[in-house]
Amino acid sequence: MSPKYDFLIVGAGLFGAVFANEMTAAGKSCLVIDKRDHIGGNVYTENVCGINVHKYGAHIFHTNNKRVWDYMNSFAEFNRYTNSPIARYRDELYNLPFNMNTFHQLWGITTPDEAKQIIEKQKKEADLEEGKEPRNMAEAAIRLVGADIFEKLVKGYTAKQWGRPAEELPPFIIKRLPVRFTYDNNYFNDRYQGIPIGGYTAIIEKMLNGSEVRLSEDFFSAKDEYMKIAHKIVFTGMIDEYYDYCYGPLEYRSLRFESKILDTDNFQGNAVVNYTEYEIPYTRIIEHKHFEFTESDKTVITYEYPAEWKKGDEPYYPLNDDRNNELYGKYRALADQEENVIFGGRLGQYRYYDMHQVVDAALCAAEAELKA
Fold first, then answer.
1. Which residues are catalytic?
2. In 3-state terms, what secondary structure has residue 106?
3. Whole-prediction pTM
4. How far is 304 from 310, CA to CA, in rounded Å?
């Protein structure tokens, strides 16, 4: 039986939707399947009490890539939302990312030179040898912002988020968190930033227009049949699962979300408040109405709980330490031998992608495919 479609796309998230949009625009036929009962993957938003709720955690689009920004804006208008989270340690509140407001709140200082002197002093007190690469995230964090901020705002949060102490995590993780010696609470340094008005689901719907979409369908429930249904497969699930964990499972972190509708118009005054002490089990509370400046006499909040991942759980973050990266390399070698399978997204490429990076990777994959 000859294949019915040009592409079977496994996963109706951002990577799969962008790829499908590019292929259908080029006249190719696409079947998109997803084991969830909705499109959008982790960027899925649903309307609750007139508020667009980010079902799987806060998603703020940001990028320096004008091509990606213009591409996303062709599907929706973006608002002016600027990500300025608050960190709460016990009864103390601090601005994020780490900036002069944070340093003033912590130390009472007012100038960049004062902040740098304190950080330098704390680095020396921690006995971190100058010129040597940090061995772990704890050392990298103290080098960046000193021991006080590490103890209050990094240590407990990190242990909750990754399920292991900062001393056991690779140093590159802290590099995702900006540090600046200005009074600037904008979390991202990127030129473009915002939230799509009306939510992300509407964007994915437009991207998938022209593709056949089937939801609540698990690729692995009928893998042999799915392998024959299209000339090529775009797989955005876990690469280790695709190969039946033949080298052993890669490690991920999972999340659990607990949402509540409250009879108040404003619960916490900010879209994102991080809880950095280890004793509080959730890492943050999200108040969704602040993403789109929604006026309502109710509000929806979501508690985000990190969780250890095991087979059958939803994977969210690849754990890119040396052991897992080495293991991924073995799966990548198998993937490189495939002629008719394209692996994409966080799980397919075992990489911590932000949304703009997913879009760019999908566009590049589509361009390469069309050229081929």
1. 176, 180, 253, 284, 304, 352, 354
2. helix
3. 0.93
4. 18
8 A C-beta contact, residue 46 and residue 53:
yes
User: Which helix or strand (DSSP H or E) is residue 89 part of?
Assistant: strand 86-89
Cα–Cα distances in angstroms (integers) from residue 164 to residues 89, 202, 303, 306, in the given order = 19, 37, 20, 11
Q: Tell me how far the alpha carbon of residue 357 is from its chain's centroid.
A: 10
**Which domains does the chain carry?**
5-79+192-252+318-371 (3.40.50.720), 98-176 (no CATH)
Q: How far is CA 339 from CA 32, 44, 219, 231, 372, in A?
A: 20, 31, 19, 10, 12
d(CA 334, CA 8): 20
Tokens of 265: 């118009």
The separation between CA 159 and the C-alpha centre of its own chain, rounded to angstroms, equals 18
Look at residue 263 and tell me whether its pLDDT is greater than 80: yes
Q: Please name every residue paired with 196 in a beta bridge, in sequence order, or none if there are none.
A: 78
Which ranges of the chain does DSSP label H, i.e. alpha helix? 14-25, 66-73, 100-107, 112-125, 137-149, 155-162, 200-208, 223-226, 239-242, 322-336, 345-348, 355-371
pLDDT of residue 131 exceeding 80, the answer is no
CB-CB contact of 186 with 60 (8 Å): no
Instruction: For residue 118, give both structure tokens.
Output: 């304190």
Q: Give dist(CA 10, CA 31) in Å, integer.
A: 8
Which phi-psi region, left, alpha or beta, contains residue 323 (left: φ > 0; alpha: ψ -120 to 50)?
A: alpha
- What is the overall mean pLDDT for the chain? 95
